[in-house]
Amino acid sequence: MTKDYYEILGIGRDANSEDIKRTYKKLAFEYHPDRNPDDQDALDKFKDINEAYQILGDDNKRAQYDSFGSISGDGNFGNAGFSSNLNDIFGNLFEEVFSSGFSNGGQKGRDLKYELSISFEDAAFGMEKEIVIPKKELCGTCDGKGAAPGGDSVCGVCKGRGTMDYAKGFFAISQPCGQCRGRGYIIEKYCDECEGDGFIRTEKKVKVNIPAGIGDSSRLRIRGEGEIGMGGAPDGDLFIVIFVEEHAIFKRDNNNIYCEVPIDFITATVGGEIQIPTLGGIESFNIPEETQPGQSFRIKGKGLPDLQSGRLGDLYLIINIDIPKNLNSKQKKVLKDTLKDIKPQQFSNLDSYNKTLENEFKK
Ligand SMILES: [Zn+2]
Ligand SMILES: [Zn+2]
What we know:
This protein is α+β, with helices and mostly antiparallel strands. The protein folds into four domains: 1-102, Helix Hairpins, CATH 1.10.287.110; 108-151 and 188-246, Sandwich (HSP40/DNAj peptide-binding domain), CATH 2.60.260.20; 152-187, no CATH class; 250-339, Sandwich (HSP40/DNAj peptide-binding domain). It is built from nine helices and 15 strands. The chain has helices at 5-9, 17-31, 40-56, 59-68, 86-99, 120-125, 265-270, 329-339, 350-362, and strands at residues 112-118, 127-138, 152-154, 163-168, 171-176, 185-187, 199-210, 218-222, 238-244, 250-253, 256-264, 272-278, 281-287, 296-299, 315-322. Strand 12 (272-278) and strand 13 form a beta hairpin.
């Protein structure tokens, strides 16, 4: 089954991102399950709309989709993310729909982005970190009015309503009052504290809970910690982008971690106990005899927790065999005498290979 996302949203292929967003919001609002209870068709349509917007609303995914044409629903992007993020989408949608266009004339505060570098261990175990963000806050002296106490008067044009109604055909159109710019009052004396802005710039400490197992470049969203909303609209959100520093010993792949472990050639040959690093500390590990270079051992449950399930990944030891250097002549002699019959296994059939070559040349 292939889907034409442009058709689903009812827009042309040349639609710009603003058009796409506007159309999506309109359709999503219309087909939202809360407005269409027990209506399977509306729900299907709503899912399609969301799926289409996940692709077309993202410049990179849209470009990919445009170059491959209609793709099947179970392809690379398709449904991915919808089912697992159902609640999130409903939540986001409501916030978006109501914060722009359906709220009472206010403007949602801007989202803020904060980049935070954390250590490998902090990503593994999770942590709580306090960060300081610049923030505009409502001026406490004037409650955001911008006027000094008693320094304002009701707007004579709109009589304090802040809006003016105009009849246009059948419709009554409401617009912000031009005289007071929608405030409903005229400032005669500015507030000393905020100099009439209604806001003061402060710094705010925000606690960030970083979940154990978080990956590099993850984004955490803290609702309501962005810039303050105007006219009663909600505050923006704070997005924390997490960068995880590299580790001196461990490499990470999703929830598994990898560690290169050097062992001496005698332990590799006859086996023995060695000390290995794990996230929880140094532990003992038994190297079996005849361990080969590059061989790996999996230690279950010593990796990082999965963000959703909490299930622990594994630790992989990749064996590296140290060949001794700077042996003295006596040591070399002992080794040679002891191991003189040991030959590498790989070319044990060199003789037969040589015979094949000779036969080839004789032809
Ligand atoms: Zn007015
Ligand atoms: Zn003030």
